[in-house]
Structures are given as structure tokens and as C-alpha cells.
Amino acid sequence: MLPTTIKPTMDSLTTVFRFLTNQKTTIGYGVMAIATIGGERLFSFFSFQCPCNLQQNFSYGLTYLLGPALVLLAVGLFLSTALWRLYTGCCLNPMKLCPRGNCIGCIAILIKVVVGALIAPIMWLSVALLNGTFYECAVSGLEDKVIVDLFCKNRTSTCKDELAKVPCNTSRLPPAETKDLLLMLRAQSQILGWILIITAVVSALIGTCYKNCRSKVSYLQLTFWKVYMQKEQEKFDSFADEYATKLAERNLKSFFDNKDPEAFPFPDHTAWEQISAIYTYTHSDQCYSTLQKYVENSDRDYGTEKTPLQMEHSLE
Questions:
Q1: How far is residue 105 from each of residues 87, 110, 114, 315, measured CA to CA in Å?
Q2: Prediction pTM value
Q3: Backbone angles phi, psi at 304, to 5 degrees
Q4: How far, CA to CA in Å, does 278 sit from each of 86, 165, 208, 218?
Q5: pLDDT tens for each residue of 115-172
Q6: How far is Cα 133 from Cα 127, in angstroms, rounded to an integer?
Q7: Can you say whether the dihedral through the CA atoms of 116, 121, 124, 127 is positive or negative?
Q8: What is the DSSP letter of 55?
Q9: CA 223 to CA 242: how far, in whole Å?
């Protein structure tokens, strides 16, 4: 029995832990935003040095603006479990992408994966555009007549030749004119940044509304579905670790004792394929995942896993 003075403290800690667990997605986005802002500031202060010449400004500024965004997109796709669950094995069996000729589920998963991976790049571009440093360097190096005339209209004749040096404050233009050009460049960058943010937020809102409107289940059942999928993944990781440990111990025991291994029930290759497939909810099944659909199937095969050599030959 815990002392009565400790119980309120334990209850408070449990409440805080449950709150943090329920809000881990929001907390994750918050951490991502802070990391993005910090990374952008580090790039601006310690790495970025605009060359301030007409030949290199555009490519240099654009590289710093889009390069990290493309890297973040690639990392987001690389870390997506859903993408690899969908893609793994599809070169040997393309029908995994479109089971029974139905590609809608595959397309929906790909859209969800890409949208999720775009969050970090959009954050980077938004922060970089709001700061304006990379955009100033890139646009000042453009030779397009429309862009040059936009900035140098009603200005001195040397404006067109000195525009590329404005980000470094090394131009021969009057200080007031240089400051004015910098303000114009930064204002354009920040406007584009806010347009990107507003577009992303509105698109996310419209997408969420459309998804919920087309949902085959009610809001509370959808909430339960999300909780179930999260718990199933957590339990799967726990069971996988436990069974992998038992299998490793059994194999090592058989090796060092120099005797036949004990029988070890284990799902076969077909079972792994079935629970890894894309799941689409239907009212007739009333299942929440491919795993539940598999275990609820009364006709499933209870055969054990083949040895690696036998399975390798059977897959050829």
C-alpha cells in the first residue's frame, strides 16, 4: 500500500503521462517546427554566404532554399512505415499494389505517405521564406527583364548592374536605395511564405473534411480505430521482440547442446504476406486491421514456418 500522500502525486504523474501520450503527434510537430527554425537559423548564420554576383546568386540561393526541403522530403519518405509496407516485395509481385485489380487503396496510401512527408519540407520553406535571406540572394541574381524592371523601375541607371550585390550591401547604389531594394526583396519573400502557409493549412483542412465526410464509420468509431491501430502496433513490437528472443534462445540452445531444436510454432510465409497487405474497411468484415481480419478467418492455414532453405526454393 502506498502512503496516502504519494497517491495524489502518482495520479498526477499518470495524468500527465497519458496527456503527453495522447498528444504525441502534436508534440512531434512542435519539435519538428522548433528544429526547422533552429536549422534555418544555423544555415543562415554559419553556412550561407551569398556570392553576390550575377552568375551565381540564383543557383546558390535556390540551392539553400530547396536543397534542405528535398532532403527532408526524402527522409520523410524513408522513415514512412506505410510506404515500405506497401512497396516491399512489389517488384516480385506487382499485384500487391493493386489486389484484385483495385488500385484505389494503393493510391490512397501513397497520397497519405506523400502528404505526411511534405510536412517537414513545407515547414522549412515557410521559415526560410519568412526569414528572406535565401530568397533575396536567389532573386537578386535573376536576369529576367520583368524581374529587373520590377525592382529597378524609376531608379538610377546602375541599379540593374548592382542589383546582385544588394544582399551583401556592397553595391554602389545610395544607401537609401539599397535599403529600399532589400525591403522589397524581403517583403516578396515573406508574402510567398505566408501564401505557402495559408495554402498548406487550407489544403489540410479541406483534405481532412473530405476524408471525414467520406468515412465509412462514425467519428467515435474512427477514434477507436486509430487507438486500436496504435495499440496493435505497440503490442506487435512487444510480441515480435519477445518471440524473436525465444526463437534465438531456442536456436542457440540447440546449437550448443548439439541436439535437434524443440518445436516452435511460428506463422508461415503466407500468413506474413496476408497481415502485411493493404487494409480497406468494409461493413461486412467489421475488422480494424489486416491482422484482425486474418485471425478472424476460420479457413486460415495453421501451418508453421518452413525452413529458410525450403522457403527460398518455394519462392523461386
A1: 13, 9, 14, 26
A2: 0.78
A3: -90, 170
A4: 7, 55, 21, 21
A5: 988 988 999 999 999 998 899 999 988 888 888 888 888 777 788 888 888 888 888 8
A6: 10
A7: negative
A8: T
A9: 29
Interacting residues of 115 by C-beta distance below 8 A, sequence separation 6+: 207
Burial 78-87 (b: 16+ CB within 10 A, else e): eebeebeebb
Measure the CA–CA gap between 232 and 243, rounded to whole angstroms. Answer: 16
pLDDT tens for each residue of 236-277: 999 999 999 999 999 999 999 998 888 888 888 888 888 887
Please give the angle made by the CA atoms of 182, 184 and 189, to the nearest 5 degrees: 95
Grid cell of 180 as nine digits = 529600399
> Cα 288 to the chain's mean position, in Å?
23
Give the type of residue at 253.
Answer: K
Under 8 Å between Cβ of 109 and 88: no
Cα gap 61→56, rounded to integer Å: 8
Question: Which CA distances in Å does 205 have to 32, 115, 193, 195?
Answer: 20, 13, 18, 15
Length in residues, the chain = 316
- Can you tell me the distance from the alpha carbon of 60 to that of 43, in angstroms, rounded to the nearest whole number? 13
Contact between 225 and 217 under an 8 Å Cβ cutoff? The reply is yes
Listed residue (148, 126, 127, 130) closest to 139, CA to CA: 148
